[in-house]
Amino acid sequence: QKPRKATPQTGEDTLNGHLPPGWQSYMSPQGRRYYVNTFTNETTWERPSSVPGTPKSPVKPANSPSVLTVNGYHTSGTPVHQFDSGHMSLRKASGDPQERKTLAETKGVLSETSLMINCVTFPHPDVMPEQQLLKPSEWSYCDYFWADKKDSQGNNTVSGFEILLQKQLKGKQMQKEMAEFVRERIKIEEEYAKNLSKLSQNSLAAQEEGTLGEAWAQLKKSLADEAEVHLKFSSKLQSEVEKPLLNFRENFKKDMKKCDHHIADLRKHLASRYAAVEKARKALTERQKDLEMKTQQLEVKLSNKTEEEIKKARRKSTQAGDDLMRCVDLYNQAQSKWFEEMVTTTLELERLEVERVEMIRQHLCQYTQLRHETDMFNQSVIELVDQLLRKVDPAKDRELWVKEHKTGDIRPVDMEI
Amino acid sequence: QKPRKATPQTGEDTLNGHLPPGWQSYMSPQGRRYYVNTFTNETTWERPSSVPGTPKSPVKPANSPSVLTVNGYHTSGTPVHQFDSGHMSLRKASGDPQERKTLAETKGVLSETSLMINCVTFPHPDVMPEQQLLKPSEWSYCDYFWADKKDSQGNNTVSGFEILLQKQLKGKQMQKEMAEFVRERIKIEEEYAKNLSKLSQNSLAAQEEGTLGEAWAQLKKSLADEAEVHLKFSSKLQSEVEKPLLNFRENFKKDMKKCDHHIADLRKHLASRYAAVEKARKALTERQKDLEMKTQQLEVKLSNKTEEEIKKARRKSTQAGDDLMRCVDLYNQAQSKWFEEMVTTTLELERLEVERVEMIRQHLCQYTQLRHETDMFNQSVIELVDQLLRKVDPAKDRELWVKEHKTGDIRPVDMEI
């Protein structure tokens, strides 16, 4: 079972047309095209070649966590090396790296362009950039669960990912309950078969004779045959429907818990990175205040000493600016890591759900197939009885009985004197 | 149900060909042709005319005991009048009425031409006249149950008619047991239906959603539909098979008892008539001895007195001869009456048995018909489930679910300074 092929996005039909099986091309938030393997969820910037064996970069072993590049970041197992490239792309995104911003400017930019919700940075509604869905026209999990949600009571927030996990666990439960339902049906069939074969053994009207007797005997036997049919049905229900439904994904709950923790940890990490950013921002503010004050002092009375202090304060302010810059970089890395895992994991959950639905559909079809066969076999059972009923012949039966029981065919005659 | 038309006897095809419907012509033991109406068992010497309304003689009301003429006797409701005609025909049968037989002759004739078994006179094996079956090629009851039989223990004798009655009562019992068997089947179907509809109400996997949820709901509903099918089957089994089998011929045993007593009484009457014959025969012997003795006395010494006594003895001997003659006539009448009732009653029993077999065959066919319908209906029940299973679509289900549960499709972006 693989998920049904994604309908290509408008404008890239031709491109998609030549991708190897399973690969889809999507647009990153920055409008850069990247590629997702819908089987392995492997993702890459580089267009996968249809020629077998052509290495794709980044080259990753199948079992390593899948790699995704988003938001201009390219993150993989080795953060430090990745940091720079990430840093570089961040620079590209936010214009000339050498330019220094004042506190006011910084604040302004932040409030105008983005919105902070539960330590996640979203684009600001007013100045929201055009975001194309990762999988348009597919209602893909990876596109609709970015925000958190207040739970039913409205006390705690539930992450979009948790909602997906609950869906998965509910699906597992449904599958288990269907197996139970089939089990109950099996019991009913076994009981029915038991009663039929018991009645078939019954000796009622066993002494009926001749062609009628034969038809009756076959009718009684037909109940044993019916019982056989229903027993076969119940045993096939067990092996071909109940067991598969029951045994499908035995460790599913554990696996989901692992996913849950993994994503939750990434969110916690993101939160701590955000705290660091805030702290660095405060520090910068302090340093800039100090620098301003010292500059005013200089205007009042000129002296070498103050000149020195201003230089020192400017140095510290610049350092604080660099600190904030580094903290923001680390925050953005953490958010990208979480983003990457969200996409790959939700794509995986999506695949699992498709698999579950297909699996259940298959086994319910198997159920109707077995029910159908049961009716067919039952009909053939009755055929035999009908054949003998057609042969029933009272005259023939009388002949058989008279031949066996006749007392004498010589008729009396008158007595004579 | 009337008995299947008797195959005409060789040599009278043409004759039979022109008889009114239901009439068959047969040969009496004396080789005289007589006619039986296979519907009413009415019997007559006179060839029934096909012209409607042509009176047949003897003319009898439909409800009066059917009239049969056999063995040269024509017996009906009025014995005295019949006695003469019977007497006459007897005479024809036994030659010149005026001729007197001596005791020796009488004995001789009796032992040579006939055989007495349980007071019934059968033709003697050595001098047996050619007897054609009343219904050749039909194995008719009326042809094969004339003799009595020692029962299994060999103590008492059982009449051929009783054996026929036992067959009838056994048939009635078989019919009753078949009804019981069907009753048991009905119970099994009701139990099965109860369990199916109960399971159908069960809430297992009721929360499954989307197209899969619809298919699952239909699958559960289909059990209720199956239950309906089996309930319908069981109720039709009751009204169309069990009840008819059970209620067919409610007073049958009583009717058979009546038959039994009627025929038994005729046999008793025959026995008493036979006793009278034996008594009269002894009396004749006495008279003939006395006459002989007196004749010898005459040779010894002649006297008027003896002359007188001889005349008197001869008169008495003649009278005793007439007595014996009358007793034999009465015996033959009784035997003929019994014979007549044997033929008509066994023909009726034959008809009843054919009727019973046909009735049972019909209702067993009804059973298989109902079983067949049950399988057909069950298949249509499953069709509905199959239709919905074909419509199951994971992508559609995901769309429905995502639309309902999505938290937000705006993706995070990098934090800027």
TrEMBL record, chains A, B:
Residues 1-27, 45-100 are annotated as: Disordered. Residues 137-397 form the F-BAR domain. Residues 274-308 form a coiled coil. Keywords: Coiled coil. GO terms for biological process: clathrin coat assembly; clathrin-dependent endocytosis; neuron projection morphogenesis. PROSITE patterns: F_BAR (PS51741), WW_DOMAIN_1 (PS01159), WW_DOMAIN_2 (PS50020). Residues 17-50 form the WW domain. It comes from the Eukaryota. Residues 63-79 have a biased composition (Polar residues). One of its GO terms (cellular component) is plasma membrane. PANTHER family: GROWTH ARREST-SPECIFIC PROTEIN 7, PROLINE-SERINE-THREONINE PHOSPHATASE INTERACTING PROTEIN 1. This is GAS7 protein. The gene is Gas7.
